[in-house]
Design goal:
Number of domains: 1
Radius of gyration: 17 Å
Low-confidence stretches: none
Number of helices: 6
Helix content: over 70%
Strand content: under 5%
Order of helices and strands: HHHHHH
Mean pLDDT: 95
Length: 150
């Protein structure tokens, strides 16, 4: 079960990253291009938030139940803080990604609270950018796309 969930989690990160890049790009294009806020802008932001929620659920499944790395870290948390890989997955990765989920949702929700299209795009641009940067910062890039298969 662990290899399958991890593989899905690794592949789904690309969906999150692609949707995040598109959401950020459209938000900045709308903000600086003085474009109207469209239903497509809202949907892309929502899809970004939904994809990151899905990643969070897969990540929590791995973190709490399936991952041998976090299981090892939880046995002796103090010692795990001295081991870079264990600390990354037990603390840093989880911290960055939970913050990214929060900011992606802020980027999806806060534009609804203003009337001006440029303000909608500005809010989306700021929060989606922060969320995407956190995803990029917290992603374990050295891991293979399909661990155990390649």
């Amino acid at each position: 079960m662990y290899p399958l969930v991890l593989a899905i989690h690794n592949i789904a990160r690309w969906i999150v990253i692609i949707l995040g890049v598109v959401a950020v790009f459209r938000a900045f294009l709308g903000w600086f291009g003085k474009r109207e806020w469209t239903e497509l802008d809202r949907r892309i932001g929502s899809f970004f938030a939904i994809s990151i929620d899905t990643q969070l659920l897969l990540g929590l499944l791995l973190y709490l139940f399936l991952s041998p790395l976090t299981r090892t870290a939880f046995r002796d948390f103090g010692a795990a803080m001295g081991i870079t890989d264990l600390r990354f997955f037990a603390i840093e990765h989880a911290f960055y990604m939970v913050l990214a989920v929060i900011f992606a949702h802020l980027g999806s929700i806060l534009p609804r609270k203003v009337d001006q299209p440029s303000n909608k795009h500005r809010r989306a641009a700021i929060w989606f950018t922060v969320a995407l940067l956190l995803v990029l910062l917290g992603t374990p890039w050295a891991r293979p796309l399909l661990p155990g298969l390649f």
